[in-house]
From TrEMBL:
It is found in: Cell membrane. It is a multi-pass membrane protein. It comes from Candidatus Harrisonbacteria bacterium RIFCSPLOWO2_02_FULL_45_10c. Its main location: membrane. This is Magnesium transporter CorA. The chain crosses the membrane at residues 245-265, 277-296. One of its GO terms (cellular component) is plasma membrane. Keywords: Cell membrane, Membrane, Transmembrane, Transmembrane helix, Transport. Belongs to the CorA metal ion transporter (MIT) (TC 1.A.35) family. PANTHER family: CORA FAMILY METAL ION TRANSPORTER (EUROFUNG).
């Protein structure tokens, strides 16, 4: 647990224990059900106004290198008129950045912890959205890498990478998209809890979230286009292979035909009595095969 006090107070709790929850209970008369929820993560994001405090659950995407996809992280906010309590269940970069800014920038600390707790919430979520924006970098890097390798005859390998990237974008969207609704709700609820003046700051958060989602939509469209192009290249390569096999099968047809004829009884006896027939037939098949080969090469089929 870490605490920064000025005119207002920010309390940050990571991996809360029952002792931590008891300390939070002493800070304010929070509902027992909410206090119990702080001991584990929540399934959904929400904003709930109570008589003299707000409860906010916010989810943010975190990239997991092992699964090559984004997973959900959570920050819970307990907001009163003079305190903001954040609870999270792992070490989070945006909260660490906010902590450092308060400790290293006296002007920022004065501006953030002197007016209203709405300012604290605004700067915290702003830091989270900036982090979410940075989390898009690995998607951007993967998209750029796929674009560069698209025409290097690696269609089969790219197919797997595109699938991983599409799953990552989908997981990121599933986590982040509902937060837009939460921020809209916070803008309305916050205007009543603090004052209408705070709405301009909360509207700014809605705009920042929209920018993140627009970037994600652009990446999704780009990956869809890359997947379509890669599939076309793979189909073209498959068709070329099938064409070559068809041509080879056609080239061997005269030989198969002559062999089948020679298997007939009276023809076999005739060839046995006269080897010149066999030689002539062999030369004929050879000439036809060479002629077909030259014809196919002239047409560019092989």
């Amino acid at each position: 647990m870490r605490i920064i006090k000025h005119k207002l107070v920010w309390i940050d709790v990571q991996n809360p224990t029952k002792k931590d929850v008891e300390y939070i209970r002493d800070q304010h008369k929070f509902h027992p059900i909410i206090l119990d929820e702080l001991l584990h993560t929540s399934a959904r994001s929400r904003v709930e106004p109570y008589n003299n405090y707000l409860f906010l659950t916010y989810h943010l995407p975190m990239y997991d290198k092992n699964s090559k996809s984004s997973r959900r992280a959570e920050v819970d906010f307990l907001i009163t008129k003079d305190k903001v309590i954040t609870v999270h269940y792992e070490d989070l970069e945006p909260l660490n950045n906010f902590w450092r800014r308060l400790n290293n920038d006296p002007h920022f600390k004065e501006r953030t912890l002197s007016d209203t707790t709405g300012r604290i919430v605004y700067h915290l979520i702003e830091e989270i959205l900036a982090f979410s924006q940075r989390q898009l970098r690995h998607i951007e890097e993967n998209v750029t890498g796929l674009s560069k390798e698209l025409f290097q005859k690696k269609e089969a390998q790219l197919l797997q990478r595109i699938s991983y990237l599409k799953r990552d974008i989908l997981d990121y969207s599933i986590i982040s998209k509902p937060q837009g609704i939460i921020l809209e709700s916070l803008k309305e609820v916050g205007g009543k809890f603090w004052s209408s003046d705070i709405k301009i700051y909360l509207s700014d958060l809605v705009g920042d979230h929209l920018k993140v989602m627009q970037h994600l939509d652009n990446f999704k469209e780009t990956v869809d286009a890359l997947e379509q192009t890669n599939s076309q290249l793979l189909n073209a390569k498959t068709n070329a292979v099938m064409q070559r096999f068809t041509v080879l099968a056609f080239l061997t047809f005269p030989l198969v035909l002559i062999t089948s004829i020679f298997n007939i009884g009276f023809v076999d006896k005739l060839v046995a009595d006269n080897l010149s027939i066999f030689s002539g037939s062999f030369i004929f098949v050879l000439i036809v095969t060479i002629a077909l080969l030259l014809f196919f090469r002239k047409k560019g089929w092989i």
